[in-house]
Amino acid sequence: MSLLHLAIVSPLVLAALIPTLYRTFPKIHTGWFLLPLPILLFSYFLQFISQTSQGNTITRNLQWIPSLGIDFTVKIDGLGLLFALLITGIGSLVVLYSIYYLSKEKEKLNLFYVYLLLFMGAMLGVVLSDNLILLYSFWELTSFSSFLLIGYWHHRERSRYGAQKSMLITVFGGLAMLGGILLLYMMTGTFSISETIAVAGELPGSQLFIPALLCFLLGAFTKSAQFPFHIWLPDAMEAPTPVSAYLHSATMVKAGIYLVARLTPIFAQSGIWLWLVAGIGIITLFWGSFSAVRQSDLKGILAYSTISQLGMIMSLLGIGAVALHFDGVNDGIYTVAVTAAVFHLINHATFKGSLFMAVGIIDHETGTRDIRRLGGLMTLMPITFTISLIGTLSMAGLPPFNGFLSKEMFFTGMLNAKEAGIFSLDVWGILFPVIAWTGSVFTFVYCMILLFRTFTGGFKPEKLDKEPHEAPLGMLVPPIILASLVIVFGLFPKLLANTLISPAMAAILPSLVEDGKQFNVHISHWHGFKPELFMTIGVVLVGILLYKTQESWSGIYRLFPEKFSFNKLYDHSLELLQRVSRKFTRMYMNGFIRTYLVYIFSFFIFILGVALVYSQAVKFDTADLAEVRFYEVILVAIIALSSVSILFAKSRLTSIILLGAVGYTVALFFVIFRAPDLALTQLVIETVSVSLFLLCFYHLPKLRKSEGRVGFKLFNLLIAAGVGAIVTVISLSAHSSKKFESISNYYIENTYKKAGGENMVNVILVDFRGFDTLFEICVLGIAALGIYGMIKLRLAKGKTE
Amino acid sequence: MEILMSFLIGILFMTATYLMLSKSLLRIIIGTGLLSHGAHLLILTMGGLKRGAAPLLGEHAKSYVDPLPQALILTAIVISFGVTSFFLVLAYRAYQELGTDNMDRLRGKEGHE
């Protein structure tokens, strides 16, 4: 176990200690105890930058289940490190923020921090695993802890609904991913990601390649809230705001992005991958920003904006995959898309985290997040306003913030897409910049709504529950740090270029990096008068126009009735599933024993009949038969007659006596077929049985006056005839195809020699096969005790009623 | 003879099944009785009905009938007797407590899973 392993599991270890700390120090806010851990981890991960920026990777191995190829293998490369820094860095800020956000008196802090630490450890595990099964384990742990965090205020119905929805959707995707992992394992024979990447070139020929690709994408799309699986994210906003800031903007929703980036070297050779990732991403971008405009809840806007921005990163990763088919390390026009993806990943984490925290402050200090009740907070909350201003302008893609840089590069990447000339990108590639531009306009509009509806306009104190004022310093520090990072990265993007972005790109596109070389990352503010600049200017102009005239065009949202939304589809299909399965179960489980017997008998007839015909087992051979004698024919006739006449018997007594007749005739059969012991037993037992029958049913009151015969039912008769026919056919066929001699000669020879008896049946019962007899005695004993208990024990009477 | 016996066993199984599908509890129990007779005869028939002496060494015969199926049937008879008598008393008690032997009325109710 190396230090790196320890770093990954340390949040889980601390999570185990939290309840004790919470109880031992009730006066100290529990958050303070865990604040040092993410900071420590952050500084620990920082030291790897010097290694990864030189193109080195660090791998540590710990055996877990070596016989199955499942090991606790962790690996630090550019991509993993970038995510690890995001997780621990934003994690520290979120913990600090939550200390001020969550009240010590009112909230169950022990639960909150246990869940949060579980999540942090799981997320670190996801991004640093080099073993796919390990990755999957941590992946499910993030779904699970996210479920707990969304449902943190479990007394609220909406929280439970949101938690269940996110759980169903992400676990569905996770399970699909497990399928993809297994398919990949069938192709390569290893769970190790590095080893899989090493043999990636041979994979596309396999039949399993496309199914595996689709399974992985399903996992990534559900986790990263891509269209149409985005519906869980807005409902996850029921979680406490620190959770939304951490999980649903900066870390967990990027697990899908991470997965796509990580698997790019394996799957990106395929056109299907490229089109799905880029296409779904760009649709998500548009749909997210389009839907965000209509929201009135601040967190709702941010949720849809997260969806939209994730779609943007996803589409960039898709377009970036083109690079694998073309250019090398330097000056590739497609690698710029990957640069933009990685850069925007960092940018989004900074500005979205700060925006969530700012919204949390507004909620905390005014008591509402409804945009219709807010307004004019600029002078009351100047610091929060400044943070929001920086965050929204960066999100809208305006200079000098970092969002501007990544958006410019995004446009560059999209414009380059149509020039690739492969996978029919030359025909349809023009759609990418068009949709991207339209989506960016809506992004601009909702950014303006977020900013101006909240902070400018008339102040409406009568609509607010609290007297609004600026938040405490501790709550402001984390968003201030993030907002300053927005500016710093915006002004000095070179800080990131060689430290984080270039190593991450080397991990995403390893085949393009030659030994000792690196990606050249160009991020500049001024490209010259290129199309992307005019696109940005167009976004701003059209965006302002749309914002000003929002009243007049908001009617288009009514074009799609609420009934046809994906949420309604989800709700209806869930309800339909329950209703149909309940109906179906009620239909066949109707409570009548007779119906179940019909199922059993029909299945018996069907399965045996099919098996007999299918295996051509039906045989009829007259070679090995005993001769037919007169007495036996008479006995057969008696049994057949009496058993059939039971069906027509009117009274219970007649049926019982007819059953007795069958039993005694069977005893006569035993006499004729030379079985004296059987005949004896059968006679005695039949006598006792019949007397028992008579005893029971003769003394019972006549419940129904007309006893009647068995009502004639054709269906029952058909089933009964089927059973009889099948048994006859089987017994005939079995008798006609005897494979080998009986083993009974041994018993006949040795009954006297070895066991010292002359009655073979008795010797078999008590000597050769005595165990059977022992447990048959047990059966009789249990039956006797059971009968005694049934008659004597009368507990329920009078007590329950 | 085995062919004849096979058909007889088929008839026993058929009547047993038909009785088990009826409404009355008593008829169901009679059906199980017929079914066990059918099964016992099936074991005997499958062992072969070739003539030979009873499986007693005192007979000093050249050939004996197969003793193994007989031992199996003996065990089966005793067990089915135990089960039948238990079932019978159970039906009797159910009759006493619930006042009906109609299987349609002995149906599980909703919410009593």
UniProtKB/TrEMBL annotation, chain A:
Its main location: membrane. The chain crosses the membrane at residues 6-25, 32-50, 81-102, 109-127, 133-154, 166-188, 208-233, 245-266, 272-290, 302-326, 332-362, 374-398, 430-452, 473-492, 533-549, 596-618, 630-649, 656-673, 679-700, 712-734, 773-791. Residues 65-112 form the NADH-Ubiquinone oxidoreductase (complex I) chain 5 N-terminal domain. GO terms for cellular component: plasma membrane. It is found in: Cell membrane; Membrane. Residues 716-792 form the MrpA C-terminal/MbhE domain. One of its GO terms (molecular function) is antiporter activity. Residues 129-423 form the NADH:quinone oxidoreductase/Mrp antiporter transmembrane domain. Keywords: Antiport, Cell membrane, Hydrogen ion transport, Ion transport, Membrane, Sodium, Sodium transport, Transmembrane, Transmembrane helix, Transport. It is a multi-pass membrane protein. GO terms for biological process: proton transmembrane transport; sodium ion transport. InterPro entries: CPA3_Na-H_Antiporter_A, MrpA/MnhA1/PhaAB, MrpA_C/MbhD, MrpA_C/MbhE, ND/Mrp_TM, Proton_antipo_N. It comes from the Bacteria. Residues 638-702 form the MrpA C-terminal/MbhD domain. PANTHER family: NA(+)/H(+) ANTIPORTER SUBUNIT (PTHR43373), NA(+)_H(+) ANTIPORTER SUBUNIT A (PTHR43373:SF1). Belongs to the CPA3 antiporters (TC 2.A.63) subunit A family. This is Na+/H+ antiporter subunit A. It comes from Mesobacillus zeae. The lineage of its organism: Bacteria, Bacillati, Bacillota, Bacilli, Bacillales.
TrEMBL record, chain B:
The chain crosses the membrane at residues 6-21, 28-49, 69-95. Pfam families: Oxidored_q2 (PF00420). It is found in: Cell membrane. Signal peptide: none annotated. Keywords: Cell membrane, Membrane, Transmembrane, Transmembrane helix. GO terms for cellular component: plasma membrane. It comes from the Bacteria. It is a multi-pass membrane protein. Belongs to the CPA3 antiporters (TC 2.A.63) subunit C family. PANTHER family: ANTIPORTER SUBUNIT MNHC2-RELATED. This is Na(+)/H(+) antiporter subunit C. It comes from Mesobacillus zeae.
